[in-house]
């Protein structure tokens, strides 16, 4: 009798273990918490001056609080570009400047804004991210290095030197700093997808949230 009870107990335990393992393997992929920006802060998510890549009428907008001197931003840029490429025009990217690395960040932002005035924003952005280890060391300013890198991507350096002093760029940086604080951004990159904050943070979570929003918009 005792032997039968022992065997029965082992079988019950094995069944429970199998059921638990099956549930674990079949559980849904992690889905980001749906934390939307409060209405009173919504206008601070995207400003009219914010650089934007991709179709303006795309059903899904990724807002990235972005520091050109940030290693993680450099690492995530090709991921975001891959998402935009694979989703075939359903996604646009809006960048908000988040100069957490002080001098180096601000100089890079001024170069990017000069590039935008010359319609060379995207190639210059990709060049300074690709060459980030050359100029973003210890948060120090490296204007000449940045301009050399940008020049190789098509920037007119002579024009850029005066464009970098444009007072409007200081206004953009100050407004973005205020929005960073208002939105509670503590690190870069920080992503919002259609106004929903990506939390938890990660590549898989970003891809899943973008896919969810595309589906919600009626896309595939």
From TrEMBL:
- Can the keyword Disulfide bond be found in this entry's annotation? yes
Q: Which domain of life is it from?
A: Bacteria
According to the entry, every stretch annotated as the Thioredoxin domain falls at: 23-215
GO molecular function annotation:
oxidoreductase activity
Q: Which InterPro entries match?
A: Thioredoxin-like_fold (IPR012336), Thioredoxin-like_sf (IPR036249), Thioredoxin_domain (IPR013766)
Annotated PROSITE patterns: THIOREDOXIN_2
Q: Which UniProt keywords apply?
A: Disulfide bond, Oxidoreductase, Redox-active center, Signal
Matching Pfam families, A to Z? Answer: Thioredoxin_4
Among PANTHER family, the record links this protein to: DISULFIDE BOND FORMATION PROTEIN D, GLUTATHIONE S-TRANSFERASE KAPPA
The entry's family comment says: Belongs to the thioredoxin family. DsbA subfamily.
Main role? May be required for disulfide bond formation in some proteins.
List the protein's name: Disulfide bond formation protein DsbA
> Native species of this protein?
Acuticoccus sediminis
